[in-house]
Design a protein that fits this description.
The protein is mostly helical. The protein has one domain. It contains 9 helices and 3 strands. Strands 1-2-3 form a 3-stranded antiparallel β-sheet. Helix 1 runs parallel beside helix 6 and helix 6 packs across helix 9. The longest helix is centred in the middle third of the chain and has 35 residues, at about 100-135.
């Protein structure tokens, strides 16, 4: 019974705020913005298999063994696996003495793993946006650009939201050798990076005008 629940939970946790099942669509934090990526469903299916094949390690509470196969994902290495393990251990320590079932524990474990993978690749896109902004406005400092990016992220801006997930899908596609899917992701990433750059430049123009008038 636990295994069936965990398989369903795996599907839900992987797809939520990321992918519309059966539609080959990558979404932002909400379906308000989406991009169709042909064969992205095949990438997701292959990704899920990594979880399915290693669920027994989770049930045996061998978390390091559960995480290790995810080094197959681009960017993941022993250091990141250790960071995820420590994150899970800290979360479990704060819940010491609390009764919770295996599904809650699995959600904690998967959330830590998936968040780390997403953040690794969004960081690359984040840095690329900074580079593109500086090409167009060399006066802006890294900190100024990061501040504007953080504002967009906090406002759940749709361009940042979809870029976050396109970066993740690109990494998954490369990891499983879906070359055409990865290529499509890169094209779409470039498009939303440029939109994000334009938003940052406009925000800076507004800030400059405010500074001049004060």
């Amino acid at each position: 019974m636990n295994m069936k629940r965990l398989l369903i939970a795996t599907d839900n946790l992987i797809e939520q705020q990321f992918y519309i099942k059966g539609a080959d669509k990558i979404i932002g934090r909400t379906p308000e913005i989406s991009v169709r990526i042909k064969n992205s469903g095949l990438v997701i299916k292959r990704f899920k298999t990594l979880f399915y094949e290693n669920l027994h390690f989770f049930l045996e509470e061998k978390y390091h063994s559960f995480f290790t196969p995810f080094k197959e994902i681009k960017g993941m290495d022993d250091n990141y696996i250790q960071e995820i393990l420590q994150d899970v251990q800290i979360k479990l320590a704060t819940m010491h003495g609390t009764k919770f079932d295996v599904l809650i524990l699995y959600t904690i474990v998967l959330s830590s793993l998936i968040s780390k993978m997403r953040n690794i690749h969004f960081k690359d896109s984040f840095n690329e946006v900074i580079k593109r902004v500086k090409i167009k406005n060399h006066k802006m400092s890294d900190n100024e650009i990061k501040r504007e990016l953080d504002k967009l992220f906090m406002r759940n801006n749709k361009n940042i939201s979809i870029l976050y997930n396109l970066s993740y899908m690109d990494a998954l596609a490369e990891s499983f050798n879906f070359t055409k899917v990865a290529q499509t992701c890169k094209i779409q990433k470039g498009k939303y990076m440029n939109k994000t750059v334009d938003l940052i430049l406009k925000a800076q123009e507004k800030n400059d005008l405010i500074s001049l008038s004060s």
